[in-house]
Design goal:
- By secondary structure, the chain is of the alpha/beta class.
- It has 14 helices and 18 strands.
- Helix 1 packs parallel to helix 10 and helix 11 runs antiparallel to helix 14.
- It is globular.
- It has a 7-stranded mixed β-sheet, sandwiched between helices.
- Bound molecules: flavin-adenine dinucleotide (FAD).
- The site of flavin-adenine dinucleotide has 30 residues, from helix 1, strand 2 and helix 10.
Length: 407
């Protein structure tokens, strides 16, 4: 049922990356009063190219963003694998690994997506940059918020869209540990000048448990670099210390082969370094009282799944739609969770079923993958795997509800 005379609802969203602005878009369209608080000084650029596939493509289409995102499409055509000695092993089309659909899926730089979401909103929605929620008091009929800046405001609802290490989740549900599932990898992502002659392609150097990746859009400009490695325990100390992050990563990539030294140097020089663990978030419930979580804060899938942004976009669409069509926020939160949880869990499972083709953990896994790559026909049969097929099914595993009458 659509409620036309709903009470005015003031919503505070913490986090202005993907989930936050996507939710703000829809809530603004449905007549909510939206404030977004972001701890960075501006919407953050950088990060890896992300895929918008299946159900998420339909979500950005409904937002009217398809033309802009189609223009920003990176159009990667090839992934080339290189062995520990720097010799080329073989190449694949990216979709052979992911199950993505050629000519349908979009691949855009994370920063381009964040900007496409933010720009149309910046004059319609209140954005508070350089700030963060310090305390939340859910009084039952409203949430009283004190910000780090000292400002005090009252909202009807608060949404934590503040990522894997969500501040809102910590304030409402407690420390991250019980919800955090570490997948055993640490990564550093950054950009460096494209001195490699690469365009619309990725090149991946591997040693067991380690990968060094160059990911290029245009033949000039900047290229994305990634250094990923296995580690038994998450390097919690390094999170507070950018220098320790760089030292930790550099120590795991001492080789003087291929472009590894240039990648390490680029990582040291980068001003857009993104360092994190490869982890997921699993929670029994995503809401408590008048506070609800969205995107990675609720159900991080990890970049191994390739679906973090897609699930965040779909979740934002559904959360806003349910809030617009229920007078009672608790019913809306329950409906949102019922619809999104199976989709999120199926996409989370993409990261944990089978080994990583990009960073095989053991020598045996790496050799098995390389043997397949050396024989393109065998690769087409085996690497283009059940996991790619399951990927394709998971990307589209949900049909978007129609909330158009709520707008
Ligand atoms: C700069 C950047 C680079 C990234 N690069 C990668 C990458 O290379 N590989 C990868 O797997 N994933 C990366 N991610 C994560 C990826 O964007 C998400 O997995 C996915 O898009 C889901 O988005 P989200 O909006 O839920 O969370 P996120 O994209 O993580 O966004 C969370 C937002 O909340 C903000 N925030 C955090 N704490 C607070 C706080 N206390 N108060 C207010 N705001 C807060 C953050 O600054 C960020 O803007 C990156 C995220 C960012 C912000």
């Amino acid at each position: 049922m659509i409620h036309t005379s709903r009470p005015a609802r003031r919503v505070l969203i913490s986090g202005a990356s993907i989930a936050g602005p996507a939710l703000a878009h829809w809530l603004d369209r449905y007549g909510f009063e939206v404030t977004v608080v972001e701890k960075a000084a501006a919407v953050r650029g950088g990060g890896y190219p992300i895929d918008i596939r299946g159900t998420a493509r339909e979500a950005v289409d409904r937002m009217g963003l398809l033309p802009r995102l189609t223009k920003a499409h990176v159009n990667s055509q090839r992934v080339t694998f290189v062995d520990a000695a720097g010799e080329t092993v073989g190449s694949l089309q990216p979709e052979q690994l992911t199950g993505g659909e050629v000519g349908v899926d979009l691949e855009v730089r994370r920063g381009d997506l964040a900007d496409a979401l933010y720009t149309p909103l910046r004059d319609r929605v209140e954005f508070l940059f350089n700030d963060s929620i310090a305390t939340l008091d859910d009084a039952g009929d409203a949430v009283h918020v004190v910000f780090e800046s000292g400002m005090r405001r009252t909202f009807d609802l608060v949404v934590g869209a503040d990522g894997l290490h969500s501040n809102t989740r910590r304030l409402v549900f407690g420390p991250e540990e019980p919800f955090h599932r570490y997948l055993g990898y640490v990564f550093a992502g950054f950009t460096l000048p494209n001195e490699f002659g690469l365009a619309h392609e990725a090149a991946i150097w591997n040693d067991p448990g380690r990968s060094a990746v160059l990911y290029a859009h245009e033949p000039s400009g900047r290229v994305h670099g990634f250094l990923t490695f296995t580690r038994d325990t998450p390097p919690l100390d390094a999170f507070r210390d950018p220098r320790a992050q760089r030292d930790l990563v550099a120590a795991r990539f001492p080789e003087q082969v291929w472009h590894v030294p240039r990648l390490v140097e680029g990582m040291r020089e980068a001003d857009d370094l993104f360092f994190d663990v490869v982890s997921q978030i699993h929670m029994r419930t995503w809401s408590h009282g008048r506070v609800v979580l969205a995107g990675d804060a609720a159900h991080a899938t990890s970049f191994i799944s390739g679906q973090g942004s897609s699930v965040a976009l779909v979740g934002a669409y559904v959360l806003a739609g349910e809030l617009a069509t229920h007078a009672d926020h608790a019913e809306a939160f329950a409906a949102y969770e019922r619809r999104i949880r199976p989709f999120a869990e199926r996409n989370q499972a993409l990261a944990t079923s089978g080994g990583s083709a990009v960073t095989p953990g053991t020598r045996e896994e790496l050799e098995a993958r390389n043997a397949l790559l050396r024989d393109p026909e065998a690769a087409a049969r085996a690497l283009v795997t059940e996991s790619a097929l399951e990927g394709r099914a998971a990307h589209s595993a949900m049909e978007l509800p129609d909330y158009s009458r709520a707008a």
